[in-house]
Design a protein that fits this description.
globular, 5-stranded parallel sheet, 43% helix, alpha/beta, 7-stranded mixed sheet, 558 residues, 23 strands, 21 helices, Aldehyde Dehydrogenase, Chain A, domain 2, homodimer
């Protein structure tokens, strides 16, 4: 163990104000952000951008060494969707040794005070924030996000989401008094000294995804850490680097604060020899945080003995009934469908439009004209190559490319997905959104997740049918977002019924710059945890309160 | 729907002070009780005892009719352990119709405000409290508890435990603002109206047990109700009446407050045709609260798609290292083992004593002398028949009687369990505690739950071995209570390690009137939820926070 440079208690004092501001933010759910989303030199320093890029480039083709047991072999599974050679080499995980190290490191970590652990976590977040440019390049070249999106989503927005989870967890622990004297009145007063100690559950296994490796992993990772659990991070083979950097920073702060750095470790695997199932079935693993495909998420929910928090996938609906701003609606939807080529769990998929069209600005607009407005808005958005590249990013996985090719060949496609050029990265694999028109009866085609830049306009009898179909698919397949466009209060009330019965958050008349894809830390609940798209919400009390237990001692007093 | 006599809002105002006092109590965890545990006429009224007994007697041999669908058949499965004929006839549940009614009734209940629901729940608790004498007889003649214990445990103590769960759940809901205006600063300020609505998960299935039908069922039942879920109560066939009375009171208050009374219904089954598994697998059931055997609890945890809260069984340990009060220790243990004939999930089972004996009051006392002190204390406690009857109660089930007979025939028994007379009820089936001495190596015999008046004194090499065995059995088999007797701070520290690693609450040097069996609402966490004896604790935030979800709407403002 190295010398302690700053104890957890020191770090808690250093970041106390940030914690208190975050506590207030989760209480009010008004706007708050602790980590600036502007990548300007004024905020992060004039040299930050260049230094971050250099730090990223220095990783390439080199071993990435963390303080943890390994088999001695190395793995290298990432491929940049922009065509840049990466070849970062990670230590292959030795599962037995890794879990033994986590158990060992976890003992002192679990015995530390909540304040010490919160101090370490907040210091790590501050250091991760300082490395947001390096993180941006790491996220861009693993997920395929465009640079600015990668900067924000993998950087400050992910850090805010982590910061949100910490006061939730801290509040739950702080509500429990450390000790009380219990006095029961009676003929003879009964006096008992009671102590209440927060103890961790065990090891948390955090399973990352390929598209938002930090944003989705941080809430569970940080909530488990501050409640005293050691964490083994199992990244997606396509998006290791952002989480490897995260673990490196955490290990550094742990070491400096006098803890065993192996409180947090990285378990890298390959598609050929996946480790998630192996780790999930180990008795040392008491908590699992998972973001990824529905299939494996369902398996975890049904088979793991650990307490499981999942974000899987859904089929997101848009019910278009009427609008006062057809072009604003079309522009907003075009951006939602195009952003990061539809590779967001929040991207709309099915747009329900009545066959007789809608009323827009007091005029009746035909079904075909609504479709035309949408397609026209997508074309306009992506007409300029540099802007298109900044919106679309690149396609993360081969599976999504194949899915696009398959859908392009099916009937009803009114806008084909096509390759597009990226002026900066000639080898980037970029695809524009596909729009297909289908009938309401064609549920087999549209009522399953079509991940990527694929949207269906579903022709319905009327808005009542639209709402019925949207509710049913949220209940059966899950949904993470829902949009209604209507100028009619009666329809709005019915749409609120869709949200209630489908247990999905609802966006009403989004026609401006706010996108349904975006979910703001401290204010928006991401995933409700009430439909098949996931069993947990980021972040609420249920997400944190069961990550620790309370052990009580009673000692009668004379 | 009948006329509303007092709305939920009225009832909330009526009971606001009780709610606030309970909120303060869970914050401080100091002593609090809202419902008097004294059965005196001064508290409940001079006629309450006689009226309660008459009300109970008026139930016998008659149909018990609730406002809910039924097959038309009736069932009668209860048998008084005191030999009194009961023959209360309950409506057999029609599962399809019952769940359909619960779904229908649940719609308006889920749409009501948290305050309305809390008002209904608190009014029901006040009325249940007024019927504590009727409840006492109902509990006594189904569970076998002696009258005073039945009065307290099934009456005021259960009511306090219900009242504890309500502010926990209410606090979680009240922390979520109903609406906010979210303003993100920037070149153009983004303004969004957000609403947050608490919605229930669905139907809660509350599965009751045979020994503490109300005490164990109330926390989940009331937590689920105030969070908006309809509840189907499935009582143990041996202990229906206490929960039937509860449902009757709840239905009455619901009806008067303008709600469909079928928000709460009773699903009575028989041992031949059990309904728990059938109900647990229904898609309408989103929450399950279970108290009972480990086997079925494990099955629920592994197989139910609903969110499951369990209290199963454990093997409770006592580590005897040293004491300043040998006779106080022996008397306290004798009472803990004898109370309700050991039919409590909190009753100690395995008493670990070093083979070379212990130091008591500065003197070395041999192993045999420690055993002798314990057996002597049990004999002294039960020497007087009327007092013995008040302590022991009666044996609830045939399975426990058979278990006693089997253990009586095994080697090492130093105190045989024997039948005992009950002066008031000649047909009562009463058994005194059995004590057997076994070796540490004989784990197959003592390291499984021996429910009922059966205790093992386990001869160990030393206290370190005692602690190691006690920790292991808590981890493998689960434990709900743990006792250490020691005068040595180093041993006490190690015992705290047992509590931490076995995730079990610890009682230290209990030599007076406080028993490890007792768990006080508002202060003691009953079951930690961290070992195999159960996955939930009564009551903490984790017990309530996931019984509802939050649905958000976002509407951009101009």
């Amino acid at each position: 163990m190295t010398t302690t440079l700053a104890s957890g208690t020191d770090l808690f004092a250093r970041h106390r104000e940030t914690l208190d501001r975050a506590r207030e933010a989760i209480r009010t759910r008004a706007y708050f952000s602790a980590y600036p989303e502007s990548a300007s030199g004024k905020v992060y320093g004039e040299t930050a951008a260049a230094e971050g890029k250099a730090a990223f480039e220095a990783r390439l083709g080199r071993p990435f060494v963390l303080d943890q047991p390994s088999t001695g072999e190395s793995t290298s599974t990432e491929r940049s969707p922009y065509g840049l050679p990466l070849a970062v080499q990670y230590q292959a995980a030795d599962v037995d040794a890794l879990l033994a190290a986590a158990v060992q490191a976890g003992a002192a970590w679990g015995a530390a005070s909540p304040e010490e652990r919160v101090g370490v976590a907040l210091e790590a977040l501050a250091r991760i924030n300082a490395r947001s440019f390096e993180m941006a390049h790491a996220a861009m070249h693993t997920t395929g996000q465009a640079f600015m999106m990668a900067f924000q989503a993998a950087g400050p927005h992910a850090q805010d989401r982590a910061l949100e989870a910490i006061p939730y967890a801290y509040n739950e622990m702080a509500r429990i008094p450390a000790s009380v004297t219990w006095e029961k009145p009676g003929k003879e007063t009964l006096r008992v000294a009671k102590t209440f100690r927060v103890v961790p559950r065990g090891i948390d296994l955090t399973i990352g995804c390929s598209t938002f490796p930090t944003w989705n992993a941080y809430p569970g990772l940080f909530a488990s850490l501050v409640t005293g659990n050691a964490v083994v991070v199992k990244p997606h083979p396509q998006a290791v680097l952002p989480l490897a950097i995260t673990v490196e920073v955490l290990q550094g702060v742990l070491r400096e604060a006098g803890f065993d750095p192996r409180v947090v470790t990285l378990a890298v695997d390959t598609s050929d020899r996946p480790l998630a199932k192996v780790l999930a079935q180990r008795s040392e693993v008491a908590l699992i945080d998972y973001t990824g495909s529905t299939g494996f998420g369902d398996w975890l929910e049904e088979n793991a003995h650990a307490l499981v928090f999942t974000e899987k996938a859904g089929v997101n609906g848009v019910v278009i009934d009427s609008t006062n701003d057809l072009s604003g609606m079309a522009r907003n939807l075009a951006m939602s469908l195009s952003l990061y080529s539809g590779q967001m769990c929040t991207t709309p998929q099915n747009l329900f439009v009545p066959k007789d069209g809608i009323v827009a600005g007091g005029e009746r607009v035909s079904f075909d004209a609504v479709v035309g407005a949408l397609v026209g808005a997508i074309d306009a958005l992506l007409g300029e190559p540099a802007r298109a590249a900044g919106v679309l990013g690149a396609i993360a996985t081969d599976a999504t490319l194949h899915r696009i090719d398959e859908e392009n060949a099916k009937p009803g496609v009114v806008r084909k997905s096509a390759a597009a050029a990226n002026p900066e990265f000639p080898d980037a694999r970029v695809r524009t959104p596909l729009v297909a028109v289908v009938d309401a009866a064609d549920r087999e085609r549209y009522e399953r997740e079509a991940f990527g830049p694929i949207a269906f306009v579903v022709r319905t009898a009327d808005t009542d049918e639209s709402l019925r179909l949207a509710t049913g698919e949220a209940q059966r397949e899950g949904a993470i977002t829902a949009i209604v466009h209507t100028t009619d209060d009666a329809v709005l009330a019915k749409a609120e019924g869709w949200a209630r019965d489908g247990k999905v958050n609802l966006a009403v008349n989004f026609t401006g710059s706010l996108l349904v894809n975006q979910s703001a830390a401290f204010s928006d609940y991401h995933v409700t945890g009430g439909n098949p798209s996931g069993n947990a919400s980021l972040t609420d009390a249920a997400f944190v309160a069961n990550r620790f237990r309370v052990i009580e001692t009673r000692t009668p007093l004379a």
